[in-house]
Structures are given as structure tokens and as C-alpha cells.
Specification:
The protein has 461 residues and is an alpha+beta fold. It folds into four domains: 88 residues, Uridine Diphospho-n-acetylenolpyruvylglucosamine Reductase, domain 2, CATH 3.30.43.10; 119 residues, 2-Layer Sandwich (Uridine Diphospho-n-acetylenolpyruvylglucosamine Reductase, domain 3), CATH 3.30.465; 109 residues, Alpha-Beta Plaits (2-Layer Sandwich), CATH 3.30.70; 86 residues, Alpha-Beta Plaits (2-Layer Sandwich). The protein contains 16 helices and 18 strands. The strands form four sheets. The protein has a seven-stranded antiparallel β-sheet, with helices on both faces.
């Protein structure tokens, strides 16, 4: 519990209107997209790096945790104040400072919403590809903290591939900059990439330098429908092997299709077991040629219906279906255990088959969908945790799925991060020496374990 004098000092730093200790506000910032709640002692809304610096210096002096937060859309509990303290919300740092059309770069603050930034960039004929499912709400600061991906990662890469530099505040309060504004730069260690994906445990980002690319001339969307999962997952590898790299290549299993059809009428045959959504982009001639090739591969691999969107409205409707999957799963069961495993593309048929076996063995509802083009599958275990033994079954199933993923040469998280939900599984993938090296880095940056403690590593570092 924070002392009154500490609350008073925080109010002097950020202003009385930008701090709250009311029960209503504390509850609002006690959770994210994970089904867990931890009440903070206060919530603050700083205006700039100077105020953040002063807050962190006070935190080191008074020994209270500071938890940085954007929009709170994360799936790993990365913004939860598990040990109390102060939730520091970056929503007031929300300016697009510059979009440089000469150098194809941009400078933004962390509170800028990803989708809004994309719209502004596209007005200039440019393109910022990272597109997490939460892009309409999630902020670029949160995207940087988690190294967010999304469907476009298949062709264009993830957030770290577009961040060239940062301004940030160390846990001890010093303001520093990393990286460059140029396309190249190899002076010293790459601290920028160290900060990106560090889940708010090494620094609070206050300014982001991004590279942009020209907006593709055209896009085209294809939906391929299958009567069995194996044919759909086999098709994914066949498309890439055919030397076509779609901008998006998404997979939906039968359960996820059933859920979204409650809200979107896809008019699919009743024996549909899986579908692929495929987007191609580039110049018109190349896209048409690639579309013909992709449709042929889909049919050769067993698709019994291949539809090509006739216009942008039809294409947008199909992608709205994909984005609706996650919220629609609530109709199956109240609690969702959401994992984002990644395997080599060639192993997708194997891992989907193993998940089906585990699902049947434990008699659980498991829904799989996601970015099949880069091997990133979202595995959702839907349970009612009020049923005795249900949570325990789900935990055992999760661990077995992780074991299968690692045996297939994969990784336990592609874009959600570790946070608190995967911390206990970290040692399954990383050797002890590597984990200890990471802990040493954390201790160098944050000697008093002030910034977002309890994340990534199980317990104290």
C-alpha cells in the first residue's frame, strides 16, 4: 500500500487531474485481456518523458513497482500489477510527430493507436504493415513492448523489423535514446532490438522511430474451403513452396468457423472442416498471376471450393470474419486459455494433428486458428473453470501441447509474449544459462526491480 506522502508526490509530478486512487479506476486498470485481476495502489497518466523520469526516480527511492500500460489488450498479463504499485498509462503521449515522405520514416509517441497510425500513413501513399488483431485499440508502445505481429508478418515481418530507434526512460529514471533515424546503423550494441519485445521490463518507451514502405498497388483475397484439416494445413506449405509469399495466409478450424458463423453468414457447406484466407498484394499483373497459381494449388491439395473476392468490400467482409474469431469464442465457454505457438510451416499438419489428439484425450474444447503462413497458430482452450478439475485438465493439456511444439522445432510464443501466463513454462524452451543471462540484463537495467516486476521470469530476478 502506497503511503499518502508518496501519492502526494506523484500528484505533484503528473498533476492532480492525472492520478487516481478511486476504487473504480483501480479496478479498470487491474486486468488486461487475461482472465486475472490484481489491484494497483494508484493509476497515473504522465504527459512526457520528464514526468515518467521523475516517477521512476521516486519509485526507486520509495521502493514501489511501476507497471507501464498502453491499451491493456495483451494476452499474457504483461500489464498486470501483480505486486501492487502504480500503473503508468501512456495514453496522453499520443502524437504522430512526423511522417517523412522523403525518407519513408515516421516518429510517434507510444500512445498512438496502431490502426489510426496506419490510416494516416496510407494517406501519404505509404504503408506500416504490423497488424495485430487488436490494431483498432492497441497502441504502438504496447506493440513495441510485445513485438506485435499479425497476419502481415508472413510477408512483411513484425514490429521489430520497423523500429529503427527509440527514446525511452530507464527503470532508474534516466532518459536515453537508442538506434538511428537512418536505414542503416551498426554503431555499438543493438539496444533498440533489446528493448523491443522486452515486455516493459527494461524501459518505458516515450518516442518511437519507424521505417515505412510504399503502399502496395493492389490486394486480392481468396477463400479456400476444405473437408479435412490435413488438406488445409498441407496447402499452406505447398503455396510457399510454390514460390508465392502471400501478404496474409490465415487458417480457421471447424470450431472457429462455427463460432463466427453465429455473427457472419459465410454460407459454407455443412461438411466444411477448415478454411484458408489468403491475401496477395503487389502490382496488378503479378497479383493476378499469383492468384491463379494459388487457386490451382488449393484445388490440387483438396479444396472443394475456392472463392476470389470480387471487390474490396467482399475482401473486407472476409477479413472481418477472421478478426471476429477471438471474441466469438466466448459462446463456447466463459474462460479462454489463449496460446500462440509457432512451428516450422512444414510441421503445421503434424502439430494440428497432435492438438486434435490432446483435445480428444482430455475431452476439452480446443479451437485452433491463426497465421498459418508463418507457422503461428493460436490455440484456444475453452473451459468453465467453475467445473471441478477443468482448469487442471487444461493445464495438463497446455503443457503437452508445448512439449509437442518444442519437439517439432517450434517456440512457445510468437507474438503474445511471456508475461505471467507463460513464465512457469520458460525453462521448457530456454536453457538455464540463457535464462540467467537474461536475468543479469534485467538486473543491470533495473537494479531495484522497480519496472514491471514478476513478468517473464517466475518470481523475483
Amino acid at each position: 500500500m502506497l503511503k499518502k506522502k508518496v501519492i502526494s508526490k506523484l500528484a505533484k509530478i503528473v498533476g492532480q487531474d492525472n492520478i487516481s486512487t478511486s476504487q473504480e479506476d483501480l479496478v479498470c486498470y487491474s486486468y488486461d485481456a487475461v482472465n486475472k485481476k490484481f489491484l494497483p495502489d494508484a493509476v497515473i497518466f504522465p504527459a512526457d518523458s520528464g514526468e515518467i523520469s521523475a516517477v521512476l526516480k521516486l519509485a526507486n527511492k520509495e521502493q514501489f513497482p511501476v507497471i507501464p500500460r498502453g491499451a491493456g489488450t495483451g494476452f499474457s498479463g504483461g500489464t498486470l500489477p501483480i505486486w501492487g504499485g502504480v500503473v503508468l498509462v501512456t495514453s496522453r503521449l499520443n502524437q504522430i510527430i512526423e511522417i517523412d515522405t522523403d525518407n519513408l520514416t515516421a516518429v510517434v509517441e507510444p500512445g498512438v493507436v496502431c490502426g489510426e497510425f496506419q490510416k494516416e500513413v496510407e494517406k501519404e501513399g505509404l504503408y506500416y504493415p504490423p497488424d495485430p488483431a487488436s490494431l483498432a485499440f492497441s497502441t504502438l508502445g504496447g506493440n513495441v513492448a510485445e513485438c506485435a505481429g499479425g497476419p502481415h508478418a508472413l510477408k512483411y515481418g513484425v514490429t521489430r523489423d520497423y523500429v529503427t530507434g527509440l527514446e525511452a526512460v530507464l527503470p532508474t529514471g534516466e532518459i536515453f535514446t537508442t538506434g538511428v533515424k537512418t536505414m542503416k546503423g551498426v554503431v555499438g550494441y543493438d539496444l533498440t532490438r533489446l528493448i523491443v519485445g522486452s515486455e516493459g521490463t527494461l524501459a518505458i518507451v516515450t518516442r518511437i522511430y519507424l521505417r515505412l514502405i510504399p503502399k502496395p498497388e493492389t490486394t486480392l483475397t481468396i477463400m479456400a474451403i476444405f473437408k479435412n484439416i490435413e488438406a488445409a494445413t498441407r496447402t499452406v506449405a505447398s503455396i510457399i513452396k510454390g514460390k508465392t509469399v502471400p501478404s496474409k495466409l490465415e487458417f480457421m478450424d471447424q470450431e472457429s468457423i462455427k463460432c463466427v458463423e453465429t455473427y457472419h453468414n459465410l454460407n459454407l457447406p455443412s461438411d466444411t472442416k477448415a478454411l484458408l484466407l489468403i491475401e496477395l498484394d503487389g502490382d496488378l499483373i503479378t497479383v493476378e498471376r499469383q492468384a491463379d497459381s494459388v487457386e490451382e494449388i488449393c484445388r490440387e491439395q483438396g479444396s472443394f471450393r475456392v472463392d476470389r473476392a470480387r471487390n474490396s468490400q467482399e475482401a473486407e467482409s472476409l477479413w472481418e470474419v477472421r478478426q471476429a474469431i477471438s471474441p466469438s469464442l466466448a459462446q463456447l465457454n466463459p474462460t479462454k486459455i489463449n496460446e500462440d505457438i509457432v512451428v516450422p510451416r512444414s510441421k503445421i499438419p503434424y502439430i494440428i494433428n497432435q492438438i486434435e489428439k490432446i483435445k480428444n484425450n482430455y475431452q476439452l474444447q480446443i479451437v485452433s486458428f491463426g497465421h498459418a503462413g508463418d507457422g503461428n497458430i493460436h490455440v484456444n482452450i475453452m473451459i468453465d473453470d467453475k467445473i471441478p478439475g477443468e482448469k487442471e485438465k487444461a493445464d495438463k493439456a497446455t503443457k503437452e501441447i508445448f512439449q509437442e511444439v518444442l519437439e517439432a522445432g517450434g517456440t512457445l510464443s510468437g507474438e503474445h509474449g511471456i508475461g505471467i501466463t507463460k513464465a512457469s513454462y520458460l525453462a521448457m524452451e530456454l536453457p538455464e544459462k540463457e535464462i540467467e543471462l537474461m536475468k543479469k540484463i534485467k538486473r543491470v537495467f533495473d537494479p531495484n526491480e522497480i519496472l514491471n516486476p514478476g513478468k517473464i521470469f517466475y518470481g523475483k530476478v
